[in-house]
Structure formats: C-alpha cells, structure tokens
Specification:
19% strand, alpha/beta, Rossmann fold, 8-stranded mixed sheet, 368 residues
Length: 368
C-alpha cells in the first residue's frame, strides 16, 4: 500500500506521545509498505529526508525543536492539499490541523483515517487562555462533523469522549505501545530518593504540585532529588517556584530517548501529576523500566490498579503517595515488579499490526 501520514510534528521531534506513536508505527509499516509523512519544517532539519524507510516531507514555516509553537500550524494546511491530490491508497491524519483533511474528501477518492489521542471540549477554558481555548473548542466541534472512513483512538476513555460528542465516524481503539527491547538495553542503577517527571511544562501538567509536595517531603527525606525532563511555557515559573521552595529541582530540558530511559530507570519514583491525558504512555514506559509510578487518578489509566501503581485525587494525596513509597521500599519494589509485568502487554509491534489491519480494511472498501 501507498500510505500517507499527516502529522504536524514528526521525527526527530518526539516530545509527545502522539509524535512517538506515528513514528513507531511508520517505522514498522515501512518494511512492507510505501510510507510518506507530511510534517512541519523543523529548525535545523532538512525539508526532505528518508528515515527508517519513511519518506518525510516537511512543509510550511519552521517549528522549534524544543517546544510547541502555534504560528507554524497556520501554514500546515498546504500539506493537506498536497496529500489529497497524490496517488495514495490511504491517508492517516494525526489529531489537530491535519484532521481537516477529512473535509477535503470530496476532492479525492482516497480513504481517510483520523487518529485522536484526547479531546478537551469543555476543558479548553480551564487549561488554555483565550483565544486558543475558543479556537481549540471550535476545531474539535469541526472534527465531530467530519465523516472520516475510520477513527482510531488510543484508549477506551478517548473513545467514550468522542462518542459523547457524537463524532460521525466508526471508532476503533488501538492502544499505543512501547519499545520494550530498547528499554531493556539501556543500562542504569537505581538512585535512592530520586523522583522524576517527564513531559511538557504546561499548566495542566501540574508540575507545581510535584514541587510543593517535594518541599513537604524535604524535612523527613532530605536526600530527595527532583528531576524534570521536558520544556514548555511554564519552565521559568517552575524554576522560580523550585528556588523559592529551596528544593533544588533539576531541570534537564530536552534529552535523547536513551538518556530519558536511563534517567527513568535509575529513578526511585516516576510521577505524572497531569490532570489531562489521552493515555499516559510515559507511565507504561516507566512500568517497563521497573520504576514505581505515582499518577493522578484518571479514567484513561485503565492499565493502572492498586497492585501496580499509586493513584491520587488531590495535592495532599500526591504528597501522601510519595511519602508512602519513600518510606516503604518493600511496597515500592512490589508495585514496580507488578507494573513491569503489566507493561509487557504493550508493544509497538502489536500496535502497528492493528493499525495496518485498519488500513487494509478501509482501503479494500475504498472508503465507507
């Protein structure tokens, strides 16, 4: 098959679960199919590149490598027009501006699949400022009215959200995976009292809660270290908060995939305090690293339970969960072992095979 993927951000920009998902699937499918990816131009990267058998075509304004930028998105629709006029067997659009390629279906007979990772809907105003909150909500409303040939979601919870908003297309859940082989190869040694966060530094990720919890832990656990991987608009505020709390949090910014895994593997606890997630792929990676995890109790974490993780509902709950794991290594190690077994069920190979099957089904019918 000739497969086109539309993803605003793509390799080597792998700072989010959506970008990682598209790259890992494309890499595997390229062994049997012709894969072309249209993505935004990235600072310091070539406009065209062949990586792991994937033909990458970068268009529009240049996008930075270490954060998300709105302006380049405005130039990405040109890629939608280019994709719909080419001779592809199927187009898969990553959630966002790319999804509007479905509205161009009348111009082509090419079937269109859209992949949705999460929906904010009435939460836009809570986590984003105007005008981005209004634009985001309007875009999601537009997505719900487009008739795609198939919608793929990454979790049962995201599917429920799409159904509540009356999305007009058949929906299938295909959970993202992890690269267990690569994780196994990374060497590390556990470091006592080290807590790590991995992700973007934006308000709804609630990294400030982690810093305040760390300040409360300091009197009883003075050796505790906080390591923050990632960057974003809240970085300056979080650094200022860390300084005022006198906890000495280490902000590592963007790191390579291997270094990230090494840090997570060597950490005592992995924390994701985010209040909004589509799946939480980082938690599954941490599980595969045999690192105890603490996360907000969200419906999308269907793979978490009391036997493999610590879930909480408020800031005090985060503090109590961290306190329990730091003072009870036996319980911490038990959770980590159980989590490691849970992670074994998720692999990119399985995800890619299921996505490939969707492509074949939709392509055979020439659309639905």
């Amino acid at each position: 098959m000739k497969i086109c993927m539309l993803s605003e951000l793509f390799y080597p920009y792998l700072l989010g679960g959506a970008e990682r998902r598209y790259y890992e699937i494309a890499k595997r499918l390229s062994k049997k199919h012709d894969i072309t990816v249209y993505a935004m131009r990235l600072a310091g990267q070539k406009d065209t590149e062949n990586k792991d058998g994937i033909q990458i075509i970068r268009t529009g304004l240049k996008h930075p490598m270490n954060k998300r930028s709105i302006l380049p998105l405005l130039s990405f629709p040109t890629a939608l027009l280019r994709s719909i006029t080419k001779d592809f067997d199927i187009i898969d659009a990553n959630q966002g501006v790319a999804s509007f390629v479905g509205a161009l279906k009348p111009l082509s007979s090419t079937p269109v699949v859209a992949t949705f990772h999460d929906i904010y809907w009435n939460q836009w105003g809570k986590y984003f400022n105007f005008p981005f909150s209004s634009v985001g909500k309007l875009m999601e409303f537009g997505f719900s009215k487009i008739k795609f040939d198939r919608i793929v979601t990454n979790s049962p919870e995201t599917k429920k959200k799409l159904e509540r908003l009356s999305f007009a297309s058949p929906i299938e859940v295909i959970v993202s995976g992890i690269d267990t082989d690569s994780i196994k190869k990374v060497k590390s040694t556990k470091s006592e009292y080290t807590i790590v966060y991995v992700g973007r530094l934006v308000k709804y990720k609630n990294v400030d809660m982690l810093l305040r919890a760390a300040a409360r832990l300091k009197p009883d656990f003075p050796k505790t270290k906080i390591r923050i991987i990632g960057s974003g608009p809240e970085e300056a505020n979080l650094k200022s908060l860390s300084k005022s709390l006198d906890i000495g949090a280490e902000f590592l910014g963007y790191v390579s995939e291997e270094e990230k895994i090494s840090i997570v593997k060597s950490s005592t606890i992995y924390v994701n305090p985010s209040s909004v997630e589509g799946l939480g792929l980082g938690l599954i990676e941490a599980m595969a690293c045999k690192t105890a995890i603490v996360a907000r109790n969200l419906d999308c974490y269907f793979f978490c339970n009391s036997g493999n993780s610590m879930l909480y509902t408020n800031e005090n709950g985060l503090y109590l969960a961290l306190q329990k794991l730091l003072e009870n290594p036996d319980h911490r190690n038990k959770l980590a072992r159980n989590a490691h077994r849970t992670a074994a069920a998720y692999s990119w190979d399985t995800t890619a095979k299921k996505v490939e099957q969707v492509y074949k089904e939709v392509s055979r019918r020439g659309g639905e």
